[in-house]
Amino acid sequence: MSRWPADRARTELLRALEPHVGPFTVLKAESRDWASALFVGARHRLALALDGPDGVARADRLSESLPEMELDLRGGFVADCQAIVTRADERIVLGIEALTIEEAETLSRGVRRAG
After folding, report:
1. How far is CA 27 from the centre of its chain?
2. Who contacts 58 (Cβ-Cβ below 8 Å, separation ≥6)?
3. 6-110 sits in which CATH class?
4. What confidence tens digit (pLDDT) does each residue in 2-61 have?
């Protein structure tokens, strides 16, 4: 199991997105632990309502740029990120699916503390 739980990874992901996304309201946020043979992390599904009159323009820009964007996560990094724009109840919603990976340094520190 990850030493960087999914809820903490989601908090870091939302913090890292904020300067790029601008004002938003979290409509939905689901995260679950994820692991492969070499990595541990979390998968995330977010629905963010983009607040403000420029929401449509920001959504269009983000849907194209977000997959390639470098996001500053403390203790990890974004390995994969996809975005889709929808409308819900007259709101612009940015749907994000992301995979965050815990840096090996963070994991080894957690193992040393536990061991």
Report:
1. 14
2. 21, 22, 50, 52, 92
3. alpha beta
4. 466 899 999 999 999 999 999 999 999 999 999 999 999 999 999 999 999 999 899 999
Query: Phi and psi (nearest 5°) for 92?
Result: -90, 125
Evaluate whether 82 touches 67 at the Cβ level (below 8 Å): yes
Q: What angle do CA 95, 67, 7 make, to 5 degrees?
A: 55
Tally of residues, the chain: 115
**CB distance 15 to 75 below 8 Å:** no
Helix 6-21 × helix 55-65 angle, to 10°: 120
